[in-house]
Design goal:
heterodimer; A: 117 residues; mainly beta; 7-stranded mixed β-sheet; 4-stranded antiparallel β-sheet; 11 strands; B: 108 residues; 0% helix; globular
Chain lengths: 117, 108
């Protein structure tokens, strides 16, 4: 059974870089059938797609975050990654990773990242 | 980018009721629309993809319909475990992938 697990610091200082890892088990990121995505949800608010990456490393991003976001993949470790530069309090959110054949059919449990000094 | 408008933002209903949630897109998107259920403290769960394709394990009281610009999620015979927040999501013509604003379904 596919499982995704987010990991990374729960607290990031303003202007610094947020870095998260999604560990995939029970399936392979090295698949031509799926993209792998990052989504966030601010407390009490809705869902915001951040971006997605293909096994080849090809990635595409939300236009509103594109200037600050990088998503990458390491097929040897069966992981994919999110970096978000120059964070502010507005980037405080629960961050999810998910598998994306078309819709997002499997999600991690999410990790809360707080931006605060 | 294609705009996605979900309504209502909240809804009160009773166990056994039939409820409908709507998503409207600013341009035709064929059937590339999905519906998710989210309960507090949990990630979203995919219920329906391609407008009407029920995901494995999802009860048959959930159904989706629509194409083009107007889509609906219907829950027939609400159960206590169905009280949650529901989101639609557009997955064609990305980037970007777009979510609706959410509908909070509450017990009356």
């Amino acid at each position: 059974q596919l499982q995704l697990q987010e990991s990374g610091p729960g607290l990031v200082k303003p202007s610094e870089t947020l870095s998260l890892t999604c560990n995939v088990s029970g399936g392979s990121v090295n698949s031509k059938s799926y993209y792998w995505g990052w989504i966030r949800q601010t407390p009490g608010k809705g869902l915001e797609w951040i971006g997605s990456v293909y096994y080849s490393g090809s990635a595409y991003y939300s236009p509103s975050l594109q200037s600050r976001v990088t998503i990458s993949v390491d097929t040897s470790k069966n992981q994919f990654f999110l970096t978000l530069d120059s964070v502010t309090a507005a980037d405080t959110a629960v961050y999810y990773c998910a598998r994306q054949p078309n819709a997002l059919d499997s999600w991690g449990q999410g990790t809360l990242v707080t931006v605060s000094s | 980018a294609i705009q996605l408008t979900q309504s209502p933002s909240s809804l009160s209903a009773s166990v056994g009721d039939r409820v409908t949630i709507t998503c409207r897109t600013s341009q035709g998107v064929s059937s590339a629309l999905a519906w998710y259920q989210q309960k507090p403290g949990e990630p979203p769960k995919l219920l329906i993809s391609y407008s009407s394709r029920l995901e494995g394990g999802v009860p048959s009281r959930f159904s989706g319909s629509g194409s083009g610009t107007d889509f609906t999620l219907t829950i027939s015979g609400l159960q206590p475990e169905d009280f949650a927040t529901y989101y639609c999501q557009l997955f064609n013509n990305y980037p970007p992938i777009t979510f609706g604003q959410g509908t909070r379904l509450e017990i009356k």
